Amino acid sequence: VNTETFDEAWYDGESVITTEFVEKNGKTTMTCITQYASKEARDGVLKSGMETGLEASYERLDAMFTKK
Question: What does the pLDDT average to over 6-24?
Fold first, then answer.
């Protein structure tokens, strides 16, 4: 669990991010839940296009775990 804030905040409040890794039958699944201070903050983040950077980060993480 971690808290995310920005020096130059682009949405109100902070977010609390809970990340969980669960291994089952040799496969690991990651679940990441982000809780925002308000619905408006959440909606603003969803409209920001940030999923492009997030997807790239998760692809790098996946590559790290699948390297042999």
Answer: 88
